[in-house]
Amino acid sequence: MNICVALGGNPNAGKTTLFNALTGSRQHVGNYPGVTVDRKEGRYVQNGHDMHIVDLPGTYSLTAYSVEEVVARDFLVNECPQVTINIVDASNLERNLYLTIQFLELGIPTCVALNMIDVARSRGIEVDHQKLTRLLGVPVIPIVARSGLGKQALMDAVARVAEAPRPQPLRVSYGRDLETAIQEMEPLISENAFLTALYPTRWIALKYLENDAQILEKGRSTDKAVSDQLEAVTRKVSAHIEETLETYPEAMIADHRYGFISSLLKQGILKECHDRNRLFLSDRIDKVLVNRFAGPLIMFGVLLALYQFVFTYSEVPVGWCESFFEWLADTISGQLADGLLKSLIVSGIIDGVGGVLGFVPLILFMFFGIAILEDSGYLARVAFMLDRVFQMFGLHGSSVMAYIVSGGIAGGCAVPGVMATRTLRSPKERIATLLTAPFMNCGAKLPVFALLIAAFFPAHQARMMFILTLISWSGALLAAKLLRLTVVKGPSTPFVMELPPYRLPTFRGLMIHTWERTWQYVKKAGTVILGISVLLWAAMTFPRMPDGQIETYAAQRSQIIAAAPSAVVAELEQAVGDNSLSADAARLKSELLVVQGRQSAEALRHSLAGRIGSTLEVVSRWAGFDWRTNIALLGGFAAKEVIVSTLGTAYSLGAVDVQGGDSLSARLVAEPGWRVLTAWSVIIFVMFYAPCFITVVCIARESSWRWGIFSMIFNTSLAFLLAVGIYQVGSALGY
Amino acid sequence: MTKINIRKMQVNQEGTIASVKVGGELGRRIRDMGLVPGTFVKIQGRAPLYDPVALRVKGFTLTLRNNEADHIEVEIDG
Fold first, then answer.
1. C-beta atoms of B61 and A276 within 8 A
2. List of chain B residues whose C-beta atoms are within 8 Å of the C-beta of residue A497
3. Cis (ω within 30 of 0) for the bond into B52?
4. Residue in A258, A276, A498 nearest the CB of B62
5. Which residues are bridge partners to A28 per DSSP?
6. Predicted confidence band at A655 (pLDDT cuts at 50, 70, 90)?
7. Residue of B28, B54, B65 with shortest CB distance to A63
8. Domain range summary for chain B, segments of one domain joined by +
9. Domain contains A695
10. Cis omega before residue A543 (within 30°)?
11. pLDDT tens, A124-151?
12. What is this model's ipTM?
């Protein structure tokens, strides 16, 4: 028998652990259609029952408050799983039963998994699950998700519930005023078959009283007349309650639900042999970790450690990836004849895709680190401690994670940073964080800054780097404030959040968490990035120089070779490295390189990118950029590292790699268009302009393409305004 | 018995929620998390800048900002 099972429950109730214990490796992750909430599905086979398990997002309630709640409710109603497993934290029963009651009121076949009975027992809480089964009318199975205890019994119960007839919806009494209103509404609903195909009658009445936006809207579009009548009843009872009791129907409903739960619990379900306020281990840890003075210090320590771990230890595997792609590029270069095809495959495809896949170890380490902080419960404390500061800028305490990972401590990367915003539950703060995190000084901007600092501020290199970090933080926070006041306007999302007890993460959980997020990155980013890198390659290659010019340069080279003694030419041809060359051969080589460099600079100028760069000069002159800087900045959209190598090509130095920027520094200082002011203007522009396209793709994946495109336009305009401001004011002041 | 606002409560002070005077999204959120009249609360701690505040409610720890806690009145002894 095939059974579709939904898995629902409060956040931190152990839903993910149970899901992993049930489905193991037989699971896959996707998104719910139209929203960015993860959808995990997997299979579980037992006694000939093939169960298809869908993990619902963690929710506290089924009112349409957040995306998660809407998704959970819609799934339960529209996709109609045969059984819903409601996972409940036994050590926190009262709070967790609030959702259970709502499942039962919705009349869906439910099976309660009473999780963490071991934790509850250690706290002196004993739950009589048989009695709870009788009182709720649905099976309640004690389990320990971490060890898999009770898994079989739970799934047996699920199979039994699936075969049983659909249960009657639970009826909680909501007091005289509301019951009168419900009695007035129910006949209206059932006589007109108003939404009854989807929901129980009483439930619809309740949702009207609760002022549930989604149901009201659905009601209005289904049958305006009935909906109006129901709303009138709601208005009448609301006015009455407000006058007599100074409260709202939705508040009364919540009160009565909790009242119903406490009356259940008072019937001897909970046996507590300890004082409720006993200082649990978690609280003792919190006394230190959230301490007014030690807390922030420890937090900075932890964040710094995470950062060190991610960026230091991922260096080696990232190096392996890079070497692999270098090897691949070399091998393919060796196999193919010089020409367009080779250039496309090596510079366009391998470099582009390699740029993305080279990040994989970094992303993997990042997500592993975040998974530890998240699963252990520490991330919630970080948000708690930092919320006040971030709130001033319209952000949320959890935003700090994304900032730091993106390069808040110089040298991070915006790609995992943008993906780290997933831990933010509030949509508006999340968009603001997503859009401003790329302002941080990521590892790819550092070579650009290092080059310019070495060239123009040789005396204060370390201090300059520190100042740039401060500028990027202030820029990001102020831009976030600006965004929150304009495009993502709105009141801040309530910070009503649970601080879960500290928990030792399970290794299996960490692995699954890390792997699924990393795989999503590879799969989703890979395709788009291949396309864009080919496009950029084409822009910097076509149209090509006229054949006549190519021949001129070839002729120049042959001339140089012909002029040199044949022994030197032979030496150069056979030489492998640089060091073994004699003085004559080295001179010959550099002469050839100069011609080569001039040719590639000329080719670049002739290409589409070069033409765009020259055209842009009209505008970019305001910020002090010439056409060569323009091409470099254009190339920087592919990856910021490209800025340095493109500047090298454009200033005809031949191929300049990221490390070999010394001669380029000297060249820039000597260039008449460049001075300290230009360097400032370029630095600020690079810091704030469009994120690299891998980041843009990630922003789009995490939100929508609209925001991806917005980030390119907004960031570039902001960066340009700042650069122009600096350059114009500086010039006017005579710098 | 006196009624005071959560913002004015000291760390470790205890009381019983008397009223939650807010509707809409925030009110719903507060109630969904178990902050309803009659519930016993204890101030667990405050963040380094005194905001947000952490409460112990129904056996778990909940955080909310001071300006959100302003809607909640607590009855305390003395």
1. no
2. 62-64
3. yes
4. A498
5. A41
6. very low
7. B28
8. 2-76
9. no
10. yes
11. 888 999 999 999 999 999 999 988 899 9
12. 0.94
Strands (E), A119-218: 125-127, 140-142
Residue A524 in tokens: 């989703």
Q: Which residue range is the domain that position A465 belongs to?
A: 293-331+360-368+381-498
- Kindly state the average pLDDT of the residues B12-37: 89
Dihedral sign (CA A213, A214, A215, A221): positive
| pLDDT (0 to 100) of residue A662 | 57
Average pLDDT on A404-424 reads 80
Give the pLDDT of residue A469.
86
A607 found inside a domain: no
Q: Is residue A415 part of a domain?
A: yes
DSSP A291: -
In this structure, is residue A353 part of a structural domain?
Answer: no
Of A63, A92, A384, the CB nearest to B47: A384
Residue A164: count of CB within 10 angstroms of its CB: 12
Task: Note whether A88 and A112 are within 8 A (CB).
Answer: yes
Candidates A383, A372, A381; CA nearest to A504 is: A372
Tell me which chain A residue has its CA closest to the CA of residue B56: A277
CATH class of B2-76: mainly beta
Q: Which tens digit of pLDDT belongs to each residue from A20-54?
A: 889 876 777 766 666 666 788 899 988 888 899 99
Pairing relationship of beta strands A140-142 and A110-115 according to DSSP bridges: parallel
B12/A contact by beta carbon, under 8 A: no
User: CB A494: neighbour CB atoms within 10 A?
Assistant: 21
Q: pLDDT tens for residues A557-587?
A: 888 878 777 777 777 777 665 566 677 777 7
| Single pTM value for the model | 0.80
Q: What percent of chain A has pLDDT over 70?
A: 93
* Interface touch A60/B26, C-beta < 8 Å: no
What count of Cα atoms within 13 Å lies in the side-chain half-sphere of residue A513?
22
- Quick one: DSSP state of residue A652? T
Q: Give me the CATH number covering residue A114.
A: 3.40.50.300
Residue A50, strand partner residues: A2, A45
**Cα Rg of chain A, angstroms:** 32
A268 and A323, same domain (yes or no): no
